[in-house]
């Protein structure tokens, strides 16, 4: 769909994936005025398609739009449109275990205008593509490199918006991580490089001495949908969980005293990603002997079970399509 100031959203359409035309002076190219979301739809044997908390993605899209001076979308209408598209495209959703339809809604600023001000025109698009299983050989731990030179975001910046600039600023650190055999970067706060923020595309949790802790939202951390679901699930199970500041020194100390039981990342792509090793300024911390922790495995099974409809959904998180 397209948006023009004064006219609003119009020209809704479904088209095959193909190149699009933009003016070289379009605002997106110069000032990065663009936002996105990432979601997955799962298809089960009985033909039911399941979306996980899609209302939360629409809500976060509008939060990002507000921060980037972009127009709001009608959350209900956008969700209805998405559901219609999935129905059109149902044959595209793979059924094999772990596979899904990846959904990428995004909005770009299209006004041809070289000047630092919000665009007066936008396009909202949704790309859909079948994706394979994140874990081809079952859930396994990843290695994480703690970044102490570069920062991804600071409070007051755009860190808690899902916008391209946050990812652009992370590419250089990610390149180093890739080169050194680490799967993602762990970001520290942008002022003191002391407090833990999040992993490249995941929020992060630690189990320290029996208690689960995750960095509290502070304006620069993305308000992850998997993160909030994990917190609710832990509370539902009566497992102690707290959101607060967590310093890298606390993790180092917990590791030194044998109290760092588990660590894991949470995000739409992997759902739960156990962390087996951190490297911070040349120092290595192995977590749970580099193996998947009991709680990480339990959370993974529970959340993926809810998402795929093989387990009860006590929270009403799942939206089912094509149900007979
Ligand atoms: N942090 C960042 C920076 C991300 O890109 C993502 C992926 N969207 C997450 C956290 C996890 O968020 P969610 O659980 O909503 O996928």
Automatic annotation (TrEMBL):
Q: Which reaction does it catalyse?
A: L-isoleucine + 2-oxoglutarate = (S)-3-methyl-2-oxopentanoate + L-glutamate; L-valine + 2-oxoglutarate = 3-methyl-2-oxobutanoate + L-glutamate; L-leucine + 2-oxoglutarate = 4-methyl-2-oxopentanoate + L-glutamate
Molecular function terms, GO-annotated? L-isoleucine-2-oxoglutarate transaminase activity; L-leucine-2-oxoglutarate transaminase activity; L-valine-2-oxoglutarate transaminase activity
This protein's UniProt keywords? Amino-acid biosynthesis, Aminotransferase, Branched-chain amino acid biosynthesis, Pyridoxal phosphate, Transferase
Decide whether keyword Zinc is in the record: no
Q: Which cofactor does it need?
A: pyridoxal 5'-phosphate
Per its UniProt entry, what is the enzyme's top EC class, as one word? transferase
Keyword check for Transferase: yes
Which Gene Ontology BP terms does the record give?
isoleucine biosynthetic process; L-leucine biosynthetic process; L-valine biosynthetic process
At the top level, the lineage of the source is Bacteria
Modification sites for N6-(pyridoxal phosphate)lysine:
162
> What pathway, per the record?
Amino-acid biosynthesis; L-isoleucine biosynthesis; L-isoleucine from 2-oxobutanoate: step 4/4; Amino-acid biosynthesis; L-valine biosynthesis; L-valine from pyruvate: step 4/4; Amino-acid biosynthesis; L-leucine biosynthesis; L-leucine from 3-methyl-2-oxobutanoate: step 4/4
Enzyme Commission number(s) of this protein: 2.6.1.42
Q: NCBIfam families attached here?
A: ilvE_II, PRK13357.1
Q: Which family does it belong to?
A: Belongs to the class-IV pyridoxal-phosphate-dependent aminotransferase family.
- PANTHER family linked to this entry: BRANCHED-CHAIN-AMINO-ACID AMINOTRANSFERASE, SUBGROUP IIII AMINOTRANSFERASE
What is this protein's name? Answer: Branched-chain-amino-acid aminotransferase
